[in-house]
Design brief:
The protein has 294 residues and is an alpha/beta fold. The longest helix has 13 residues. It is elongated and about 60 Å long.
Length: 294
């Protein structure tokens, strides 16, 4: 059972995991370095725990203590009960969901391991969880017909969280991030994804676009979403029913880099109407994932 501790000092060192949550640069450096991330809201906290992440501590306003009582009773980590105004002073924003938890990160799986088998094998351990903490469902076709996503340099946490939610909802087997992508476990990305970042196996590539060869070696066709003249439509790509497909989506504004486009096997576009040239990257991912589903 967790220890319930009432705190009334915003400078209490026990609250250090929760200080300055609005400072993106601080969190970008600190959270990965210290091996922590912040889960916000009852549902997200529960999904993180269900995915096997270890809780370091929990921060609750008084009215959320009863709501989270079962979690308090189950975890050994300390639970800090504070007033809403104090929570705002500590975190830097109004914690309207009333519940925060500091969670321990897990080591990321190797990209080679994620590509080695079917969805049932993607990073799965003996207890049914992936190395990223996600429960990995078994697909009826094993390694055949698998789809993965590669996100290049997506820096907006809301876009990244939304893209992860799309991947989870539309059956994408794994997500690969280039080195400069935002952190999927940053608080806003986790929140926007509604915890989907816990349920899609993912890892970060070490070299890009050189790592395209890794996908090719595992039998994947790499399809880059872009507006190039030689791009085929997403419907044409889907009709080809590639056995293994890696969908590449680029950063906000500029899209995929020239080097990534050169490395891709196919260029693909989503047909637009009414003079609109493209979609937001998160919206484009949803369309691409839906169109290429099996």
């Amino acid at each position: 059972m967790a220890e319930l501790i009432t705190i009334d000092d915003p400078d209490d060192p026990r609250l250090s995991d929760y200080t300055g949550l609005t400072d993106v640069e601080l969190r970008r450096r600190r959270e990965p370095a210290e091996g922590l991330f912040i889960a916000e809201g009852e549902k997200v906290i529960r999904r993180a725990r269900q995915a096997g992440y270890e809780m370091r501590s929990m921060l609750l306003s008084a009215k959320w203590v009863d709501v989270m009582r079962d979690v308090i009773d189950e975890v050994p980590a300390p639970v800090y009960a504070i007033q809403p105004d104090l929570a705002e002073r500590v975190t830097g924003y109004h914690v309207h969901r009333g519940a925060l938890a500091s969670m321990q990160r897990k080591p990321l799986p190797d990209a080679e391991d994620l590509l080695g088998g079917g969805r049932a094998d993607l990073g799965e351990s003996a207890n049914g969880h992936s190395d990223t903490g996600a429960t990995v469902p078994s697909g009826p076709q094993g390694g055949a017909g698998r789809r993965v996503a590669i996100f290049e340099d997506i820096v907006d946490h809301a876009n990244l969280g939304a893209a992860f939610r799309n991947a989870a909802a539309l059956g994408v087997d794994a997500v690969f991030l280039t080195p400069r992508c935002a952190d999927p476990l940053y608080r806003r990305a986790v929140k926007v994804s509604m915890g989907a970042v816990f349920h899609v196996p993912w890892t970060r590539l070490t070299a890009w676009p050189e790592n395209v060869e890794l996908f090719r070696r595992h039998g994947f066709v790499t399809a880059a979403l872009c507006l190039g003249e030689k791009s085929i439509s997403i419907d044409e790509l889907a009709a080809r029913r590639h056995e293994r497909l890696a969908l590449m989506l680029g950063t906000e504004g500029d899209g995929l880099s020239v080097d990534a486009l050169r490395a891709a096997d196919e260029w693909v576009r989503i047909p637009m109407a009414a003079g609109v040239d493209s979609l937001n990257v998160a919206a484009a991912s949803a369309v691409a994932f839906y169109a290429t589903r099996l």
